[in-house]
Write a structure and sequence with these properties.
single chain; globular; alpha+beta; 15% helix
Length: 78
């Protein structure tokens, strides 16, 4: 996902996150944007109540219900 496509309030999924694999597949909401044009990070309020920072490439926009179900199943079977 590109940083320019991410806005506050968007619902996102955590994709592959090598630094914190336990967060992969979690759903959250973008709450803040940090950085400038070259290096941008986003604070995500996760479903469990915790807040974490992510790079744009670690996030995926939450789309239709069918895609959301597929992602949940994908990460549940890991």
């Amino acid at each position: 996902m590109e940083a320019k496509d991410i806005e506050r309030g968007m619902r996102v999924w955590v994709q592959e996150c090598r630094r914190r694999p336990s967060l992969e597949g979690l759903e959250g909401t973008i709450t803040k944007r940090f950085g400038g044009d070259r290096y941008v990070a986003f604070e995500v309020h996760l479903a469990g109540g915790q807040r974490e920072l992510f790079w744009p490439h670690e996030l995926k926009l939450k789309e239709t219900t069918n895609q959301s179900l597929w992602l949940k199943l994908r990460y549940a079977l890991r």
